Each structure stands twice: as C-alpha cells, then as structure tokens.
Amino acid sequence: MDLKQSINKNNIPQHVAIIMDGNGRWAKQQGEDRIFGHHEGVNSVREIVEACGEIGVKYLTLYAFSTENWNRPKDEVDALMELLVATISMETPNLNKKGVKLQAIGDIKSLPVSCQQELQDSIDITANNNTVTLILALSYSSKWEITNSVKEIAKQVEEGKLKASDITSKHIEKHLNTNIFPDPELMIRTSGEHRISNFLLWQLAYAEFYFTDTLWPDFRKDDFFKAILSYQNRERRFGKTSDQISKN
Ligand code: FPP
Hints:
This protein is of the alpha/beta class. It contains 9 helices and 6 strands. Helices cover 45% and strands 15% of the residues.
C-alpha cells in the first residue's frame, strides 16, 4: 500500500513536533558509539523535512537538544554540538533549495559560539523561504520557557504596566519562544518511550500524541506517513462531545 497516497490532503496537521529518541540504543544495536546513532539520525531528519514538504505540513519542530542533555558525558555533548554545527552548515543549501525556513527555540545563548553563528547564518539565509518552517529546539526545556514568560509578565506588573487580574493565557503565550508559530496538532515520539520530557508542555495542550517503538535513525518517510494517517483517524474534540463534533 502506498501510505502517502492514502493521506487525506484536506486534513494535514499544520504543525508536527517530534521527540527524536533512540539514537543511542540504535548505535548500541550496531555495536557502535552513541554518536554514530546521532549521525545516522541526521538522515532521518532530512527525510522527515522532505516528507513535510511533500504532504504540506507547514511547521516541523524537532527536539534536538534539551536543557537536561547538558548533563550527558562531556564527550557526547561536544560531539552533538559539532554535529549540529556541521549539519546546519552542510544542509543549508539543501534547505534553501527546498524552500525550507530554519528557526530555533531554546536558550540559544547557552550554545557554543560556533553553533550560535552557524545557526544564525542559516536562519538569515533561509529567512524568505516558505514551504516548511523547520524549528530546532536547542538547549530547550518547557519549564525554562514558561518560567521566563512568567518573569516577563511579573516585570510588567511590577512596573505598573499590567494588572495581575488582567493576566490571561494570551499574556503567557506572547512571551513563549513559540509565539509566532501555531501550536502543534501532532506530537510524535520514537523509541517506545511514552513521556513528554519537558517538551512544549503548554503548546501541546490539545495535540494528538503518537508513540512508536521505531528508533529515530530507523524512522523514515513511511513511518512519518503512518503517524499522519493515525492522526487523521482521531476525533479531536477539544473538550466537546462526539455528537457536537459530528454536527459541525
Ligand atoms: C535522543 O536519542 C537524541 C538526541 C538527544 C539528539 C538528537 C539529535 C540528532 C538526531 C541530530 C539532529 C541534528 C539536527 C541538525 C536537527 P538518545 O541519545 O536519547 O537515544 P537513547 O535514548 O537510545 O539513548
């Protein structure tokens, strides 16, 4: 069966978020170092970005490095940073050719300067593209992001610019890193783990979750299309009843 052909083009999620998990286990299965798995994971990234372009997903957020990942062995952190710099630099012409716009969320200032520079160059070079927006979550954690938003709001209250009683969810959203993107409708996590791991806690409030045992380096276009088909078979009720949804 051609999975891509089975996808309903009128019900494509605008924004898909992915926790790319299982690189280390994949490498171990091959008798290789963990970093070998991260390298192979880049091929999956390339395919999934392409798949988004093919079916019309407009935003793709990838959890590439979490705040907690800084606690991994130094060798692995250094290798991951090098891989990020090398990949961004190598892939930018390809992203540009495919009309992909690169964006980043997270504590970008905490990344090595070389990584920040490569990232900013690629963001600038791809700024006018509009097929898919690829958002890399780097040194990102949702609790960090929400805490910062609350601090910004508290500052406004302190300065008398905002009354505490006037605060709504819109104020919190406005100060999130993601404020210019729509919320993801679908969140995918690979490798059989069923956790959200401090990823987009606010933004995933109404997202559909898709978990697969496939390890990230093995997750390719058809696996992505399966996730989209699963999403299309869900009934999204947003707190309403099934009857209310079917009447609309
Ligand atoms: C999780 O697998 C994966 C990561 C922490 C890194 C993901 C990064 C890449 C795939 C490189 C991406 C590059 C770009 C430019 C987006 P894990 O190491 O936690 O695997 P394990 O759970 O099996 O140990």
